[in-house]
Specification:
Helix content: 25-40%
Largest sheet: 8 strands, mixed
Mean pLDDT: 83
Distance between the termini: 59 Å
Strand order of the largest sheet: 4-5-6-3-9-14-11-10
Structural class: alpha+beta
Radius of gyration: 21 Å
Number of helices: 13
Low-confidence stretches: 1-57, 70-79, 244-256
Length: about 400
């Protein structure tokens, strides 16, 4: 499975293109037992999955999901130059995120002041519109080109969402912190636009059409904080975030909140939705997420209470919490200025897998801990940008 003489010769002729080709081959070859996403079929010689031919399949195809480790070849082909470029990109994504979200910046500063410079990111998360190429793949291709591997699809039927998370190519030998420390997992979700009301679909399609080929430059948009589509008008944002439905039985208008996710994405685009501090990488008492949550609250910040402050996976090994999103004033295209939700910061503790529970602290590596994500946890973390949580924050 290692690079052949022909591959090395091609790399000598064109290093950049050879590197990308090698990564793509590695992503397909590395997994011992690739998982299958229902309704999707693999395309030969490609790391993407093509959607099975069916009129009912509304969303864009997802990248091919892999199981297994699959890191050895990546260690062989990932060069220092490309790694530094990749880190500069995610660092710029972080800069936009911190410039708009004072809560995240303040908490990071407080943690460094209390614990030292030991912050590592568990994952970075993004939101997208799952239609016309603007969904998960629009951002995923940037990460897979730099060695990230698609791992598992998660579904959120009530929210009309699906998500895919990606593992980094390697995390050996990194002694830095933040975006220059161990590479974070990547979590990208998408709104299943075709499952929304006709009115909401029309609004989203209207703005997607103004984007040109903006989906091809999603990572660039995330580093700049700019929308790839036209700035929306307030009434469209309001319709997505709070759709009123008339019911004959009660002769009342009910607030059904069509999709607060859609409203958030319309005004924030590909901006980083949240970064997640890995609490177990800290050195002081706040490496325990319970103590970390108390530390955050004692410093005057409110945490997302949906389903309880601490979100725990069924196996008890993935424990997460998050702040409520910051808000800022936004001037819409029609001149109306209103407050909109921005982003939030999350915290995660991954406990040791049962087979590694007897390891000494100095022996523990990240792969000894619970990996992946949990639908029940993530479903509640999504609420960090909801109207209910934002209103509670200001109460």
């Amino acid at each position: 499975m290692f690079a052949t003489t022909a591959t090395l010769a091609a790399a000598a002729r064109s290093p950049a293109s050879a590197l990308l080709r090698a990564r793509r081959r590695a992503a397909a070859a590395a997994a011992a037992a690739p998982l299958r996403v229902p309704g999707l079929r693999a395309r030969v010689g490609c790391r993407h999955i093509a959607m099975a031919a069916a009129a009912r399949a509304p969303a864009d195809p997802l990248p091919k999901i892999h199981g297994g480790n699959g890191l050895t070849l990546f260690k062989f082909i990932v060069f220092q130059g490309s790694d530094l470029f990749f880190r500069s990109v995610i660092s710029n994504m972080e800069k936009v995120y911190l410039s708009r979200n004072p809560t995240a910046k303040t908490i990071l500063d407080l943690v460094r002041s209390y614990d030292g410079d030991h912050i590592c990111y568990d994952h970075l998360a993004f939101r997208t519109f799952g239609v016309n190429g603007y969904g998960i793949n629009s951002l995923a291709e940037f990460f897979t080109d730099f060695g990230y591997i698609p791992r598992e699809e998660l579904r959120f039927p009530a929210k009309k969402l699906r998500a895919l998370w990606f593992s980094p190519p390697t995390n050996d030998g990194y002694s830095g912190t933040g975006t220059y420390g161990p590479l974070p997992r990547i979590f990208i979700s998408e709104l299943l636009v075709d499952e929304l009301t006709a009115q909401s679909q029309e609004i989203i399609h209207k703005y997607i059409k103004t984007s040109g080929k903006g989906n091809k430059h999603a990572a660039l948009a995330s580093t700049s904080g700019e929308l790839t589509w036209e700035k929306p008008i307030y009434s469209d944002f309001h319709i997505l975030s709070s759709l009123l439905t008339f019911t004959l039985s009660s002769l009342l208008f009910l607030d059904t909140r069509e999709s607060e996710y859609a409203a958030w994405t319309l005004v924030n685009g590909y901006a980083l939705n949240h970064a997640t501090i890995s609490t177990h990488h800290l050195r002081s008492d706040i490496r325990s997420i319970d103590k970390f949550n108390k530390f955050v609250e004692d410093n005057g910040f409110k945490l997302n209470t949906e389903g309880g402050i601490l979100k725990v996976s069924p196996d008890g090994l993935l424990q997460q919490s998050s702040t409520v999103a910051d808000s800022s004033l936004f001037t819409f295209a029609d001149g109306i200025t209103e407050s909109i939700p921005r982003s939030y910061i999350e915290f995660a503790e991954r406990l040791l897998l049962p087979q590694f529970k007897d390891l000494q602290d100095e022996e523990v590596k990240e792969h000894h801990r619970r990996d992946g994500f949990e639908v029940g946890n993530a479903d509640k973390i999504f609420e960090s940008t909801s109207k209910d949580q934002l209103t509670r924050k200001s109460a």
